[in-house]
Amino acid sequence: MRIALFLADTEPVAFTEVLTLPEGVGGEDAVSFAPVRLTGKLTKSGTGYTVRGSVAGDGRLRCVRCLAEFAFSFEEDFSVRLLPGKLAPNEDELQLSRKDLDVRFYTEAVLDLVELAAEQVELLLPMKPLCREDCRGLCPRCGADRNLGDCGCPKEVDERWEALAHFHPVQDP
Fold first, then answer.
1. What is the pTM of this model?
2. For a FRET experiment, which of 63, 99, 129, 153 has its CA 20 to 30 Å from that of 25?
């Protein structure tokens, strides 16, 4: 679904859509997403436009430690400023402020709702998805899931640290 930006020149354009995200959203740690609900309002704002709304849905992610799949739910409000591409800075290196992170520049005067939903979901995903905070991961030797119990592999000891294993600090009297 796409909305022509000029429609918001005279009055705000409200939208509520249930959208299927394109393949690849979330990268290799995202297994799947159910259709997401995107609601919002597009308004004219100075030389550009502002989109305020919310995105909500469910998905399945893969834990980076044990590779197990787990459920992930999200619901978040967002605000994005849309400015014409001719206003984009053309410097090679640019220091961004917090307010610059919510700005998108457009060359085609349309708002692609699927692209907007995908972008907002990407921003909500954890950098390192974990099935649980205390996930023990996989054994580097045999590949067993340590969350299910010990695998029986002998503990590896780095001989370089062996001298510290018997070190006892002196206690002050």
1. 0.79
2. 99
